[in-house]
């Protein structure tokens, strides 16, 4: 599969990206899992942009408790699949879904008030970049190079010999 | 198994990373929560609900309204009676902004077991508006031409007084003497002398007397009392409280009704004990701007701030008051100041001390007001151990040099810029507030409170408590003792501004320390600053 040095460099880079994104998602998920007081209420209630009414609706009970649980499970799922390198394409898809929601709740569109941002953005922000990185992970799975998927396809070193 | 080390590394390399990240997340959150729990346990602050009052059983209480102006209408809504005009206005506001919930809140409000039986207003348009809105087949409401005829009619058990200040005491005293219960707006009185007379009347009467300081019902103020009583702040040496307004409504330039004229307004009755001046619409609708009927910042807004703190600290009447200010932002013919600074001294008051005995004692209450700027300066209680910001929200910050939290600060478990306690009963409720003035009141906790996440009008709670005490007995949270303290403190501030000197309170004698040649009430009622007739006296 990995034929040339160039290919190998690409695979290693994407693997590194996968691990960092998995790390990021997992840490976000775990901190929410262990904090019983965590809620997405503030994030949803302060939503901006064209889909504001949708997010405001999600911030109401009884929807809110489901949103909270789903968000946390999704974050952990993305984190675990990307870090372990198994079902990573499904994980990347979930990540794309989550990041789309995050982006749409607080889009960096001109004229939309930016809340809690540490930089300056015009249309493109970090959520959008991470989203595109997840598209890359979806299209270039690397679990067989580094991850549990390595065991699945009978790609053990022994059989290669 | 025949796996090589290379296989394991490539296949399972993600596992240790996953373990490390998981551990870091779990441990980090756990540590933060433990530290917070430790602080909270040490502080032991309990956000508490206002005590529930017994219901009003039996026959409905018969209530009469004296004064159906802006505040009178608001009080009626808290009692469950809104005018058609207001409902329509709020319906339109809600159409424009879905978060505007005034009408919805009003409709959800619990019904009180009362009957609105009479209205008394010297302006025909207002009295007729009340009759038109509240008269139904099963609830006949009558207009009384004078407050005495209403009180003596035998048809009312209780009256709500929302008139200009100079009518508060005469009407309250008349009602109490006839054993009719009273809910009177602030300030409780207009002169020093009638403050004592009203206290006598309230003590002698079988009826229930309450002053309209509704913030006593809000959760944050009850919680604030708990915070102070537990010594969280240490010795509070300075309180800063403010009025920051910059609009016509906030400066009491209310609308003048087009139908106002000597035929529709009983001018003589409006004037009462005030100096006889010809009919004047400006005086009628904007009476808060003249000492003859109102008392400006000291009676109108300082009283709220003073009582907000008095309900938390129970500090009583200041031993001395100095005030300064002037008419700097609205030079429109008014004679009350629109910029006012009041310093109240409590040299023998303490909220407790974490330092050597005797080192700390005494407190200054500093009220600073301008009607020409609306920058939101908060109310702050400044203690040796911590600072508290007090409003509908509560926040407590430790002080960097605190004795009580010294160890925690040194260990980095507390930081001076990180609150150790925050309480926002409104955290789950989106609000839409319409005007600058209502935002001003909302920030101070004067509009509503939140019980189990539901917004409740604090005036409703305050009036319900009064009605419950009328029926079931008990004690109102702002009665004659609290009203007396509020009125005297406000009069001291007004006198100090007018005389340009310090006014002192004799704690043992329970009276203002006399100033030779000065009649305090004459000064209070005089227009503008007091110019002592010294030259004439000398010449005479």
UniProtKB/TrEMBL annotation, chain A:
<feature type="transmembrane region" description="Helical">
    <location>
        <begin position="91"/>
        <end position="109"/>
    </location>
</feature>
<keyword id="KW-0812">Transmembrane</keyword>
<keyword id="KW-1133">Transmembrane helix</keyword>
<keyword id="KW-0472">Membrane</keyword>
<dbReference type="InterPro" id="IPR032808">
    <property type="entry name" value="DoxX"/>
</dbReference>
<dbReference type="Pfam" id="PF07681">
    <property type="entry name" value="DoxX"/>
</dbReference>
<protein>
    <submittedName>
        <fullName>DoxX family protein</fullName>
    </submittedName>
</protein>
<feature type="transmembrane region" description="Helical">
    <location>
        <begin position="63"/>
        <end position="84"/>
    </location>
</feature>
<feature type="transmembrane region" description="Helical">
    <location>
        <begin position="129"/>
        <end position="151"/>
    </location>
</feature>
Automatic annotation (TrEMBL), chain B:
<protein>
    <submittedName>
        <fullName>Gfo/Idh/MocA family oxidoreductase</fullName>
    </submittedName>
</protein>
<dbReference type="InterPro" id="IPR000683">
    <property type="entry name" value="Gfo/Idh/MocA-like_OxRdtase_N"/>
</dbReference>
<dbReference type="InterPro" id="IPR004104">
    <property type="entry name" value="Gfo/Idh/MocA-like_OxRdtase_C"/>
</dbReference>
<dbReference type="InterPro" id="IPR036291">
    <property type="entry name" value="NAD(P)-bd_dom_sf"/>
</dbReference>
<dbReference type="Pfam" id="PF02894">
    <property type="entry name" value="GFO_IDH_MocA_C"/>
</dbReference>
<dbReference type="Pfam" id="PF01408">
    <property type="entry name" value="GFO_IDH_MocA"/>
</dbReference>
<feature type="domain" description="Gfo/Idh/MocA-like oxidoreductase N-terminal">
    <location>
        <begin position="61"/>
        <end position="213"/>
    </location>
</feature>
<feature type="domain" description="Gfo/Idh/MocA-like oxidoreductase C-terminal">
    <location>
        <begin position="281"/>
        <end position="351"/>
    </location>
</feature>
<dbReference type="InterPro" id="IPR050463">
    <property type="entry name" value="Gfo/Idh/MocA_oxidrdct_glycsds"/>
</dbReference>
């Amino acid at each position: 599969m990995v034929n040339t040095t160039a290919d190998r460099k690409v695979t290693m880079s994407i693997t590194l990206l996968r691990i960092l994104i998995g790390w990021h998602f997992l840490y976000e998920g775990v901190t929410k899992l262990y904090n019983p007081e965590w809620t997405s209420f503030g994030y949803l209630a302060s939503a901006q942009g064209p889909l504001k009414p949708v997010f405001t609706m999600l911030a109401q009970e009884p929807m809110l408790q489901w949103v909270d649980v789903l968000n946390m499970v999704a974050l952990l799922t993305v984190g675990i699949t990307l870090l372990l390198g198994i079902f990573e394409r499904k994980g990347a898809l979930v990540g794309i879904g989550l990041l789309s929601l995050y982006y749409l709740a607080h889009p960096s569109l001109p004229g939309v008030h930016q809340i809690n941002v540490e930089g300056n953005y015009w249309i493109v922000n970090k959520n959008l970049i991470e989203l595109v990185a997840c598209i890359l992970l979806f299209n270039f799975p690397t679990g067989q190079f580094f991850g549990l998927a390595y065991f699945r396809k009978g790609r053990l070193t022994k059989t290669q010999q | 198994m025949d796996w090589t080390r290379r296989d394991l590394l490539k296949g399972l390399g993600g596992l240790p990373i996953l373990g490390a990240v998981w551990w870091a997340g779990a441990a980090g959150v756990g540590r933060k929560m433990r530290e917070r729990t430790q602080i909270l346990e040490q502080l032991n602050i309990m956000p508490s609900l206002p005590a529930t009052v017994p219901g009003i059983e039996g026959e409905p209480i018969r209530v009469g309204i004296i004064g159906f102006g802006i505040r009178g209408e608001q009080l009626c809504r808290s009692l469950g009676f809104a005018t058609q005009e207001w409902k329509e206005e709020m319906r339109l506001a809600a159409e424009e902004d879905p978060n505007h919930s005034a009408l919805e809140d009003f409709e959800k409000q619990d019904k009180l077991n009362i009957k609105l039986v009479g209205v008394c207003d010297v302006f025909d348009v207002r009295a007729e508006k009340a009759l038109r809105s509240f008269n139904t087949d099963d609830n006949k409401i009558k207009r009384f031409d004078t407050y005495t005829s209403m009180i003596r009619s035998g048809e009312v058990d209780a009256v709500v007084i929302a008139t200009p200040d100079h009518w508060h005491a005469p009407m309250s005293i008349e009602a109490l003497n006839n054993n009719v219960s009273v809910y009177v707006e602030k300030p409780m009185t207009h002169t020093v002398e009638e403050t004592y007379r009203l206290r006598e009347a309230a003590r002698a009467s079988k009826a229930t007397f309450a002053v309209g300081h509704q913030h006593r019902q809000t959760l944050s103020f009850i919680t604030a009392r708990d915070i102070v009583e537990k010594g969280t702040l240490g010795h509070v040496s300075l309180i800063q409280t403010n009025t920051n307004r910059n609009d016509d409504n906030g400066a009491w330039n209310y609308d003048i009704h087009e139908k106002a004229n000597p035929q529709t307004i009983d001018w003589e009755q409006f004037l009462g004990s005030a100096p006889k001046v010809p009919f004047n619409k400006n005086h009628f609708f904007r009476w808060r701007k003249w000492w003859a009927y109102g008392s400006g910042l000291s009676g109108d807004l300082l009283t709220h701030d003073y009582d907000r703190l008095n309900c938390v600290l129970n500090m009583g009447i200041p031993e001395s008051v100095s005030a300064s200010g002037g008419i700097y932002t609205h030079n429109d013919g008014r004679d009350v100041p629109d910029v006012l600074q009041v310093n109240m001294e409590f040299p023998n008051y303490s909220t407790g001390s974490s330092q050597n005995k005797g080192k700390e004692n005494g407190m200054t209450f500093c009220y600073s007001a301008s009607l020409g700027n609306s920058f939101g300066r908060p109310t702050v209680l400044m203690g040796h151990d911590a600072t508290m910001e007090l409003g509908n929200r509560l926040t407590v910050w430790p002080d960097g040099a605190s004795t009580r939290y010294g160890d925690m600060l040194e260990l980095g478990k507390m930081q001076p810029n990180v609150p150790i306690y925050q309480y926002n009963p409104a955290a789950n409720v989106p609000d839409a507030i319409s005007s600058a003035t209502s935002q001003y009141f909302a920030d101070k906790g004067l509009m509503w409170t939140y019980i189990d996440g539901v917004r409740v009008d604090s005036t409703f709670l305050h009036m319900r408590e009064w009605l419950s005490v009328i029926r079931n007995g008990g004690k109102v949270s702002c009665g004659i003792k609290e009203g007396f303290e509020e009125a005297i403190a406000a009069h001291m501030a007004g006198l100090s501004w007018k005389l340009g000197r310090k006014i002192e309170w004799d704690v043992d004698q329970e009276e203002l320390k006399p100033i030779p040649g000065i009649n305090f009430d004459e000064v209070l009622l005089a227009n503008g600053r007091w110019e002592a007739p010294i030259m004439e006296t000398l010449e005479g």
